[in-house]
Specification:
The termini are far apart. The protein has three helices and seven strands. The strands form two sheets. Strands 4-5-6-7 form a four-stranded antiparallel sheet. The chain is globular and about 45 Å long. The chain is an alpha+beta fold.
Length: 108
């Protein structure tokens, strides 16, 4: 469970959203409960999707984005990833680094 939380917290820390909590092998994210019995990568993607909805509600626009296009969490590839245009773009937990690497001033 701590690995799931670490990946989620890496991408959502500092955003206007309540981070998940853990009790008795259950993660609670904005009122939804996820159990440790769920497959790991789909669990990470499901929690990321739930929190993404909360961030979008709080900031009033899509989040995260790359070049004005939204990213959505999915585990269809076998790894929980932020997908751009339906294709894995970066793993959940690696968003800050991937966004920084994609920033216009980093293309030197």
């Amino acid at each position: 469970m701590s690995a799931v939380l670490s990946r989620i917290e890496a991408d959502f820390s500092g955003l206007p959203v309540d981070l998940p909590s853990v009790a008795d092998e259950t993660i609670t994210a904005h009122g939804m409960q996820f159990t440790a019995a769920a497959p790991y990568e789909p669990l990470v993607a499901s929690i990321a999707n739930q929190l993404q909805d909360d961030v979008i509600d709080n900031i009033g626009r899509t989040w995260p984005e790359v070049d004005g296009r939204p990213l959505f969490a999915s585990a269809e590839s076998g790894v929980a990833c932020w997908c751009l245009d339906g294709k894995p773009w970066c793993a959940v937990g690696q968003l800050a680094g991937a966004l920084a690497a994609n920033a216009p001033d980093s293309a030197e």
